[in-house]
Structure formats: structure tokens, C-alpha cells
From TrEMBL:
It holds the Pfam family ROK. This is N-acetylglucosamine repressor. The gene is nagC_19. Gene3D superfamilies: 3.30.420.40. It comes from bioreactor metagenome.
Length: 316
């Protein structure tokens, strides 16, 4: 992404739901980053930074991943791991739902559909959420808010990747929907859409169960945080026509304020690259806020300092 927010180069590598070993996945990621950096350098541009979104509890200031249940990664120093994997650059790591919510804020501004407050929910191999307040993503005290996928929902006793039973992810994660639809948990998602097109009852029931669980979990969340809109992204956006009405129905039935101020449910505008675009946007935002960190002022000129870097001045 360049300074205007335009995507210059992109590379997509989709892993199956059966997650490969961490070392292999990080080595592939390091290779992609190194290759893309060469393309940027060959185009005569300077690379300001590299950022990634990762599902789970992560400390963005250190890149330390405490846990990512469905990746089955625990206590990983991702910055060191990327160096060991051969990455030539320091990578910033952030929660994937949080960075996707940043991309949604930008996409809505571009489309002149800006909304100041909403709950963004992304679904794929897991379910993550982020609360946006006044156009800013609120990550909670440690940046770990929004683990909607591990909220208890009714109708499931299945064991979740986190170890608990009955989490939302046991009915609404990609592998759960595929399994409940009578498909392999690793099946291409196109098989689910094909089954829905031919009105396969198992596929319809699986998506309805996911929508019901999602609506139930979101209703609990909305009763606590008071947001006027829910935005469904990732796989949930692709399934919006099938599960959106069920989510809306559950919210209408269970959110106390809904009768006075109905909560909207809309598909995401951020598109399939929401996580990578949102992560890149964080780098860009940092660069625009403190350009002197990358571009030292010419010798003899007064340096520019951002607010948080302003040196202390003692008046005598
Ligand atoms: Zn769980």
C-alpha cells in the first residue's frame, strides 16, 4: 500500500483449514514478504513497514502471541520467529479482527457510508469481533477485546479449539458450518455455496444454526456495549444473504434497546483483503503521524516532532 492508500502489489496464499505446522506457515509468509519487498524496491519506492493480522490474543507492542486457539499457536514470540523463518524485515503483528475493522472504517468513508460506531465481526476459521467507537477501534485494556467466537451459545455441546464447550465457533466457524452441512471440514467453501444453491436442507440448517448462534452471541454483546450497527465480514459477508436475516431476528428478539433504536445488520464493505489492508493502514497512519522517524530533517534545520515525541523543554 502506498501513501495514498492504493494497493500496489499483492500475493494471496490460502491455507486449508487443517493448519500446517507453524514453522512452515511462517516460512511461507517470510518468503512472500521478502518477494513483495523486492518488487517495491525495484519500483523505486522505500518500504516503511510490514504488518500482519493474526487471530488470537497478541501484544502488538512486542509481537508476543499468547494464544491463538484455532491455529493452535501458544506463547510465540512472532517477531523472533519471523527472523528465524528468514524474513528480512521486522513485522508488526496485530489482532486480525481489529485491523479488519480499521479497513472497514476506511472502506465506509470511501463509499460515503461512514458510521461512527459499530461492531465489526469477521468469520473464517474462527470468529473475531472489534468495537468501533467514534471511527476508532477500541481494543480493550490490553487489546484483547472482541473474542466473540468464545462466547457460549445454546444448542451446542461441541468442544471448541479453546478447550471449552459450546462456544460460538463450534457452530459458526468455517469448519463447523461445513461439518454440520455434511461436508468435509476441509472442503472448499464453494461446495457449501453449491449446496445452498440447490437448497440442500443440511446446508441450510447448518447456516441457520450459525446465524442463530451468531445472533445470540451478538445480542449479549450489544446489550453490553450499545452499538447501532453490526457489520459482518469475511466468510460471514459471503453468507450474508443466508444468515443475515437470522442474525437480525435474534438481535431483534434479545437486545433490550432494539424496540426504540433498531440495530442494523449489514455486510462488510472492506472486501476480501480487509485484514491485510487494515494492517497496512496502521503502518501508514504511524508514518503520517511521525514522518521524521523515517525521514530525518536535513542537517541544520529544525526537526519535526510528533506530539508523543516532543522533547521536554525546561524554561529557566
Ligand atoms: Zn472457544
Amino acid at each position: 500500500m502506498d501513501l495514498t492508500g492504493s494497493i500496489l502489489v499483492e500475493r494471496r496464499h490460502e491455507f486449508t483449514v487443517q493448519v500446517p505446522k507453524r514453522a512452515r506457515m511462517l516460512a511461507e509468509l517470510a518468503g512472500i514478504i521478502n518477494d513483495l519487498a523486492v518488487q517495491v524496491e525495484q519500483a523505486g519506492m522505500s518500504l516503511v513497514g510490514v504488518a500482519c493480522g493474526v487471530p488470537g490474543l497478541i501484544d502488538p507492542s512486542t509481537g508476543y502471541l499468547h494464544t491463538s486457539p484455532h491455529l493452535d499457536w501458544h506463547d510465540v514470540d512472532l517477531i523472533s520467529a519471523m527472523t528465524e523463518a528468514g524474513c528480512r524485515f521486522e513485522v508488526g503483528f496485530h489482532n486480525s479482527a481489529g485491523v479488519a475493522a480499521h479497513a472497514e472504517v476506511r472502506a465506509r468513508r470511501r463509499a460515503s457510508q461512514a458510521v461512527s460506531d459499530f461492531v465489526y465481526v469477521t468469520g473464517s476459521s474462527g470468529i473475531g469481533a472489534a468495537l468501533v467507537r467514534n471511527h476508532l477501534v477500541e481494543g480493550g485494556a490490553r487489546g484483547w477485546a472482541g473474542e466473540l467466537g468464545h462466547v457460549l451459545v445454546s444448542g451446542s455441546e461441541a468442544r471448541c479449539s479453546c478447550g471449552a464447550r459450546g462456544c460460538l465457533e463450534t457452530v459458526a466457524a468455517r469448519s463447523a458450518i461445513l461439518t454440520n452441512a455434511g461436508l468435509s471440514p476441509d472442503a472448499p467453501i464453494g461446495q457449501l455455496f453449491a449446496a445452498l444453491r440447490r437448497s440442500d436442507p443440511r446446508a441450510q440448517d447448518a447456516v441457520a444454526l450459525a446465524g442463530r448462534g451468531l445472533g445470540e452471541a451478538l445480542a449479549a454483546y450489544l446489550n453490553l456495549v450499545d452499538a447501532p450497527l453490526v457489520v459482518l465480514g469475511g466468510l460471514l459477508e459471503r453468507l450474508f444473504d443466508n444468515l443475515g436475516p437470522k442474525v437480525h431476528e435474534m438481535i431483534g428478539a434479545r437486545v433490550l434497546s432494539h424496540a426504540w433504536a433498531p440495530v442494523g445488520v449489514e455486510p462488510s464493505l472492506a472486501g476480501a483483503h480487509a485484514v491485510s489492508e487494515g494492517a497496512a493502514w496502521l503502518i501508514l497512519k504511524d508514518f503520517i503521524g511521525s514522518p521524521d522517524r523515517w525521514c530525518p530533517p536535513p542537517r541544520g534545520t529544525t526537526p519535526y516532532y510528533s506530539v508523543d515525541q516532543t522533547p521536554e523543554v525546561t524554561v529557566v
